[in-house]
Write a structure and sequence with these properties.
The chain has 184 residues and is of the alpha+beta class. It has helices at 4-69, 72-90, 100-118, 177-183, and strands at residues 121-123, 136-142, 149-154, 157-159, 162-165, 167-172. The strands form 2 sheets. Strands 1-4-5 form a 3-stranded antiparallel β-sheet. Strands 2-6-3 form a 3-stranded mixed β-sheet, with no helix packed on it.
Length: 184
Amino acid sequence: MIQQEPEEEQSTKVEAEVAETEDIEVLKKALAEEKTKAESYLANWQRARADFINYKRRTEQDRHETGKFANSALILSLLPVLDDLERALDSVPPRLRKLAWVDGIRLIGRKLRESLKAQGLTPIAAEGEPFDPNLHEAAMRTKGREGMVVKELRKGYRLHDRVLRAAVVAVGSGEGAEEAKTSG
C-alpha cells in the first residue's frame, strides 16, 4: 500500500503539472490576444490623434480663409459704384475739372479705392497684356495684335489672391496689327 500512495501522489502531481501547463498556455494565449488588442487600440488612437491634428489645422485654415474673404460680397457690390464714380469723373467737361466740388468727388473716389485696397482689393492689369481667360472675359474681338488685350471695357479686380471680378476686354484679332506696327 505504501507503493500506491506515491503513484497516486505522482499521478496527482502530473495532473497538477499538466493543468498548470494548460493554464500557462491559456494565459499566454490570452496575453497575446490582449497585446494584439492593445496594439490595435494604440494604432487607432494614433490615427485618431493625427486626424484630429489635421482637422484642427484645416479648421484654422478655413477660419483664416473665411476671415480673409468675408467682405467679398460687400466689396463686389461696391465695384459698380466705383465704376460709375470713375465714369462720372472721366466725363466731367474740361471747364469744370478745376472746381472744388469736382476735386472733392475725386478725393472721395481715391479714399474709396484706398479703403478697398486696404481690404486686399487690387486691379487686374488688362490693356496691352496677353489675354488670360483666368483674369479676363473677352467681350469682343477687334483690330490689334492677336491674343492681346486691346482695350479694357470694365476693370477687373482680385481680392487677395482670388479673382473677384474678371476684367471685361476687347481682344486683338490679328488684323490691322501690321498696320499698327508700320505706322507706330
